[in-house]
Design a protein that fits this description.
With about 240 residues, the protein is an alpha/beta fold. The protein has two domains: about 150 residues, SPOUT methyltransferase, trefoil knot domain (Alpha/beta knot), CATH 3.40.1280.10; about 70 residues, Trp Operon Repressor, Chain A. It contains nine helices and nine strands. It has a five-stranded parallel sheet with strand order 2-1-6-5-7. It has a two-stranded antiparallel ribbon with strand order 3-4. The termini are far apart. It binds adenine (ADE). GO terms for molecular function: tRNA (guanine(37)-N1)-methyltransferase activity.
């Protein structure tokens, strides 16, 4: 997959997308990430890309044209119009399922808003999808773009050792993940639950399922009420 990121602050992306799993995925060729400086696409001699908002109001807005030039250049280079996303607190809140869908695309272009955002006509012209990372406002779309790129990258085939690495964790099934433990068996007087040391696979599976249901109910009752419980789940919840 190829991810292009258009931003006023390309330097912010360096270390975050070069280390760890995403860094390895790039080195192994599963993923290509290219950052583009929005100012390089300005026609202004002083490389300005923003302007005041029509109708009044505080702050500055990023103009449509520099983004459009960048997207057009990318489309020509790629030989087709890529899927375009803008990071915005106004967008649909990102979920694991959405990240999975995006990971199946050949490429993504992520536009990072800043200041008051981006001229609406740019979004209309390119059918851009607005994505939010949560119901709070950050200073710009750069951190959200990194989060989206990370969430998508780890689900690309080959990036994690096994698909189970993400199919068994929080949010994949609609439940949150059960607690996990490593050595030592007793740490500061706290012992690992006995069942996990028993080697009894069926009991371990049931324990994990019950714990997933319990953690989801405690931390995210909204997720638990939306989850289609089966007969075993109902029994486990009552035990
Ligand atoms: N830009 C600022 N806040 C944001 C958010 N919550 N999600 C995506 N982009 C943003």
């Amino acid at each position: 997959m190829r991810i292009d990121i258009v931003t006023l602050f390309p330097e912010m992306f360096g270390p975050v997308l070069e280390e760890s799993i995403v860094g390895k995925a790039r080195k192994k060729g599963y993923l290509q990430i290219c950052c583009h400086q929005l100012r390089d696409f300005s026609s202004d001699p002083r490389r300005r890309v923003d302007d005041t908002v029509f109708g009044g109001g505080k702050g500055m807005l990023l103009a449509a044209e520099p983004f459009a030039r960048c997207i057009d250049e990318l489309s020509e280079h790629l030989g087709k119009r890529p899927h375009i996303i803008t990071m915005s607190p106004r967008g649909k809140v990102l979920t694991q399922e959405h990240a999975r869908e995006l990971s199946r695309k050949e490429g993504l272009v992520i536009l990072c808003g800043h200041y008051e955002g981006i001229d609406e006509r740019l979004l209309q012209e390119y059918g851009a999808e607005e994505v939010s990372i949560g119901d709070y406002v950050l200073t710009g779309g750069e951190l959200p773009a990194m989060i989206l790129a990370d969430a998508v990258s780890r689900m690309l085939p080959g990036v994690l050792s096994e698909e189970a690495c993400f199919t068994e964790e929080s949010h994949f099934s609609g439940l949150l993940e059960y607690p996990q433990y490593t050595r030592p068996e007793v740490w500061r007087g706290r012992a690992v639950p006995q069942v996990l040391l028993s080697g009894h696979h069926e009991n371990i599976r049931k324990w994990r399922r019950r714990e997933s249901l319990r953690v989801t109910g405690k931390n995210r009752p909204d997720l638990l009420s939306a989850f289609p419980l089966n007969a075993e789940d109902r029994k486990l919840l009552q035990e």
